[in-house]
Design a protein that fits this description.
Elements: H1 6-9, E1 15-16, E2 19-20, E3 40-48, H2 53-69, E4 77-81, E5 87-94, H3 97-122, E6 126-136, E7 153-161, H4 166-183, E8 190-196, E9 202-210, H5 213-221, H6 223-230, H7 232-245, E10 246-256, H8 265-268, H9 272-275
Helix pairs in contact: 2-3, 4-6
């Protein structure tokens, strides 16, 4: 039976900048994390029930504690939505679908009973879950290998293209990529194409991770220059294609959430204050004058 939480049954994650690098699993040891975007990306969007935010956060902390105590094979990045509906997003990445299954089997064998108990409570906090599996389109991406631990925000843009129009979409994206490379070589992104999920069209996902929202400000302010580099005719063709062949697009902004994330130690060791903040110590209440001796 498929578990309600994607992180339990497809579970190894390590992101490099905007991509996800795969971490192989063998025995109870995690080998060194390779760099580069993962060929397979899994997104799990959890829609929270109003009033269940605190309970959801508690269960996420329990889930993380079980994985840490049991040397679980699962790594993932958890993010809270800044825009759109109230939701949390989890990203997991793999070198292949086979590795995804291997990670699932390992976690089920080692921690299945404990994780299942948390899952039974976890479902009650959610209004819905959407899970999708994507494959990287490297020729349409511009990755950059940087320290994920220094990233703080991520923009995810989902593009729904009408069935049968992917070849034209691919040609258009190659022009767009070339235009951005001239406009801003430091603008990095990954593009994934959906292979499994609830979609009636050809769906794509653009992933952009940044250190600060100032990086997104810079990107948005260069749009006019990008149009110029692309050329008037090419830009008009792009707009015409979008109007005729896009079913819809949706772009949302997310903030990294340490309490809902589990990343390799090597990724966060230089920024532990953010990823593993120390609990705030409670200040003892002062004794009143009447109780003091």
């Amino acid at each position: 039976m498929v578990q309600p939480r994607i992180r339990q049954h497809i579970a190894c994650m390590a992101i490099a900048m905007v991509g996800v690098t795969a971490v192989a699993v063998s025995a109870q040891e995690h080998p060194p994390t390779p760099s580069g975007p993962a060929p397979v990306l899994v997104t799990a969007r959890e829609m929270l029930k109003p009033g269940y935010e605190a309970e959801h956060a508690r269960l996420e902390a329990e889930y993380l504690a079980v994985l840490n105590a049991g040397n679980g094979s699962e790594y993932y990045l958890g993010m809270g939505a800044i825009s759109g509906k109230q939701q949390v997003m989890f990203l997991s990445g793999y070198s292949s679908l086979e590795e995804m299954a291997d990670v699932h089997d390992y976690n089920e064998t080692m921690l299945g009973e404990k994780l299942a108990k948390i899952d039974s409570e976890h479902g009650a906090t959610l209004a819905g879950v959407n899970t999708d599996i994507w494959r990287l389109r490297p020729e349409l991406s511009n990755p950059d290998i940087v320290d994920l631990g220094k990233m703080r925000f991520m923009e995810l843009t989902r593009i729904h293209v009408k069935l049968g129009h992917s070849p034209e979409f691919t040609d258009m994206l190659k022009q767009i990529k070339a235009g951005w490379m001239k406009t801003d070589p430091d603008f990095h992104f990954l593009l994934y194409q959906q292979v499994f999920g609830n979609s009636k069209d050809d769906s794509y996902l653009v992933v952009i991770a940044v250190k600060s929202l100032a990086d997104l400000d810079k990107h948005h302010l260069t749009m006019a220059k990008f149009q110029q580099e692309l050329g008037e005719n090419a830009y008009k063709q792009m707009l015409d294609f979008e109007s005729a062949n896009y079913d819809s697009t949706a772009s949302n902004l997310y903030v990294f959430t340490p309490s809902m994330s589990r990343l390799p130690e090597s990724w966060i060791k230089d920024d532990l204050e953010f990823w593993r903040p120390k609990p705030i110590a409670e200040v003892p209440a002062k004794k009143s004058a009447t109780t003091q001796k």
